[in-house]
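Example: Transcriptional regulator.
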Amino acid sequence: MSKITFDLDVMRTFVTGIELGSFAKAADRLGRSTSAVSAQLKKLEDQVGSPILRKSGRGMLPTAAGETLLAYGRRLLELNDEAAAAVRGVDLEGWIRLGIPEDFGERILTDVLGRFARAHPRVRIEAKIARNAALLDLITAGQLDLALTWDASISTPHSEHLRNFAMHWIGPADPQLQASYSSDEPLPLVAFESPCLMRSCATSALDRANIPWRLSFTSPSLSGIWAAVAAGLGVTVRTAVGLPNHLRIIANPALPALPTLGLSLHRMEAEPELAVQRLREIIVETLMVEDMGLQLKAA
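Written out as structure tokens, the predicted fold is:
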């Protein structure tokens, strides 16, 4: 049996199309015609020997074989891009101060730091995990080079909106700890200490729906929030990013719908140094993969 050698340009088209949710958008981003993209996908399916895409509404989602290929494709492209970055930035040195919310502190920060360190081992990163308000204060004061924050009413001179994430009601995964929420008693709410964007969204949604609520637990840390919800003290509102396995999204029609929450990346300088630019690229790429993973789970 002859070995398959995948074309990385073809693989990049496939991965980009899945991550953007549209192969027409992928064609535009990669500077190719839609017919050229179709030909590349056909070549990839011929190599795999089975369908890698299936129709879902007006879009396309990966098949079981496509999901396997997607995972390996991302790894191949990541290694390729790391090699290219390492060759171009072989003498890259410096110090970067990065701020990030707790939601992204476990898996995403690990992925970002790992990729960056492998490509640029001589650049030192100082990471600060903090609440939204603190990160905005630090980037405004020039004490961070990059800061990832949930969108708030505060703006900075050099920021970019990355994407929106759905907010959800979160409860314990343990059926014995799951409560039935009725209008007879105030909803027990677990939340960050004020001010908190998601706490405000939760209470506003409950007020608009005329649902009584009470703060059953407050915490200055996300780990405290997760622990209280897992213990059955109440529900909270977060995105699905970094959601622990012992918690789950609540699909309860008695609870009001929640809006999406934007995520932005702030830079201290309009034209940062090359090391900062490279770290920004890795953050954006990693978040795109995370968002795609959440979409696939929802599908």
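The chain has three domains: 8-88, 94-164+262-296, 165-260.
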